[in-house]
Amino acid sequence: MRLGLGAEWLGLLLLLGVSAGARGAAAAAANPQAEELLKAINAEYKFNRTSWDSSILNDAPSNLKLERILWTAQPRRFEFTVFTQLTLNRLPTLFNMCSSYTGPLSAAVYLALVQPDAQGGGALSSSNEAKVAEAVLQAESFFHRVESNGSICQLDLMLFSEVFDSDQAKLLYPVNYLRNYARMQVRTRLLAMIDVDMFMSTSLSQEMSQPASIQRYEELCAERRATVLPAFEPTKPGAVGKDMAMRISRVSKSELQTIHGRNKVTIQFKLRVFPRGHTPTDYLRWFATSEPYQVTYKRFYEPWFITCNEIMPWYDIEFRGYGMNKIVLIAALNYYNYTFWIHPSAWLVHNPHTDTDVRKMVARQASDVNKFKVKLQPNALYRKLTLLFGKAKRGMMRGTYDPKVDPRQLAVYDKVAWLRAPPQLVGSPTPESVFV
């Protein structure tokens, strides 16, 4: 069977210098615990197509299959893991992220397949089987390249697939499912979810390479602290912006201050389009201090943060596609009595990219509602997101909030004895004024 790698991917693999022998070496480097985890995750899998209306109107779950799991054999440089999620075509973005960070990184990679009801009967079609085989090849090739580079991250990688019945349904990207599964394979107590389109400052790896720093952060977990990493973005888009983003991640904090400003190289992340998401971090104070400082949670705050596995809430899997998925998690931190402290010397930088189709859809529907008072159809994604956010908000105000988690994932903990126990958290009712 001939697998048709696209021109972009062929270029990447040639650039990375991956040979057929290297791919074989990657495939041979199986980890018994990783394989045990794969079998446990797939134990309850049954072939089923995800559909738009069933998901939006009836809350039918996503149906993920773990196709491949690859764990680094390298010793961890330090006891702190970044976890993330991405679609298969964004592996080059993962490589960029990995190049900005020298510690453990757990990634859940995703392949969406479309198979109308008339094709394949009750099983995967031959054409989709070929796509899965090609995706496994790409994932193994990518993993081996990272594994053979001693100067970048130590990568653990999961490759998931999901079958949809239409191109529209394929827009329901299961972002929080993937975050939760990437978090499941984290093998350190200290962790941070950081989206794949972010560079990490050099100072973060330098700090985490000091055992005393790890110990200090682990001690802070007893206080339920979220250590927030301020986020920036380049002021230019496209290829120029990508080069700027890499530069911003490598400078010192004092140098960063000299290039920060609307008419300079970098600004606060989303300052132009969604300032509420990060303004509570207080960037002016950040540049003026060398010590951590506490800030107050505000509605729609959505920073990235460092914490410990046993006190980190699950990401709510009901949020799919685009929108509100991280905002609700940060609101849950507040509900679970976290405090927010800003890291004084490490930061993140957004690696600019074009908007996804689902993000464009949600933005268009939000504009229709908020600007033109359009009444959306019951199966509109933006309408669903607002309903889910309202449900979560009411749960937090009543003290009954409990994020929805994939039952198949929770069942894995009964099958795999060495997994870290899932979090058992109790929250406190959130005043309604917090959400105004």
Automatic annotation (TrEMBL):
<keyword id="KW-0812">Transmembrane</keyword>
<keyword id="KW-0472">Membrane</keyword>
<protein>
    <submittedName>
        <fullName>Glycosyltransferase-like protein LARGE</fullName>
    </submittedName>
</protein>
<keyword id="KW-0735">Signal-anchor</keyword>
<dbReference type="Pfam" id="PF13896">
    <property type="entry name" value="Glyco_transf_49"/>
</dbReference>
<dbReference type="GO" id="GO:0042285">
    <property type="term" value="F:xylosyltransferase activity"/>
</dbReference>
<dbReference type="GO" id="GO:0016020">
    <property type="term" value="C:membrane"/>
</dbReference>
<keyword id="KW-1133">Transmembrane helix</keyword>
<dbReference type="GO" id="GO:0035269">
    <property type="term" value="P:protein O-linked glycosylation via mannose"/>
</dbReference>
<keyword id="KW-0325">Glycoprotein</keyword>
<keyword id="KW-0732">Signal</keyword>
<dbReference type="GO" id="GO:0015020">
    <property type="term" value="F:glucuronosyltransferase activity"/>
</dbReference>
<keyword id="KW-0808">Transferase</keyword>
<dbReference type="InterPro" id="IPR051292">
    <property type="entry name" value="Xyl/GlcA_transferase"/>
</dbReference>
<feature type="signal peptide">
    <location>
        <begin position="1"/>
        <end position="21"/>
    </location>
</feature>
